[in-house]
Amino acid sequence: MTLKPLAPTLAFIAVLAACGQEPDSPAAGAPADVSQTNEAPDVYGLSGSTVLIEGADALAAALTVPEGLSVVPSADGGHVTVSGQPADPRSGGRTSGAYITIDGAAEQAFSGQMIEVMIVMRGDDTALRAAYSTAESGNSGWTPLAAETEFAVARFTYDVPLTGGANGDYLGVYPARGPVDIAAIAIRRADEQD
Hints:
Layout: H1 6-18, E1 51-54, H2 56-62, E2 69-73, E3 80-84, E4 98-102, H3 104-110, E5 114-122, E6 127-133, E7 143-146, E8 152-159, E9 169-175, E10 180-189
Antiparallel strand pairs: 1-10, 2-3, 3-10, 4-9, 5-8, 5-10, 6-7, 6-9
């Protein structure tokens, strides 16, 4: 399955609309609030996710990139390419991978719950390492997710410990070897599956 170049743009506009912003407003280039539910078209079965980030612009804005890694938006706007390796692959705290911050309502919704993390990705003969961290009560450890040659959803579940819910949670990623293209990241409670 291939992504259509307009789908990520429409998804980003849907994120802006869900956040109460018009696409032409001055804040249109601002990072999406990942604690908002996105009403974007359901290309990969990600609808209903508490956290949904799709397309190059939204992913590039949401991912914090530490030294040793790079995140480069694609020319067509459909994905970002993550490459490099962390010097010390820590899965706790903010993780040492490229990470998104999960706070506010999403952090509270996930505390004490089984969650499902879904990453739409592709890569040649590689895997992505992903870790969910509460930054205070534990983390999933690095979970290897095999990359397909075409975009596909890779997923894992994690039983999030009960936390105070005010310090932020993090989802970190880094490629095991070679670059990985990521088109979307979604997280939801496991009991909210379609």
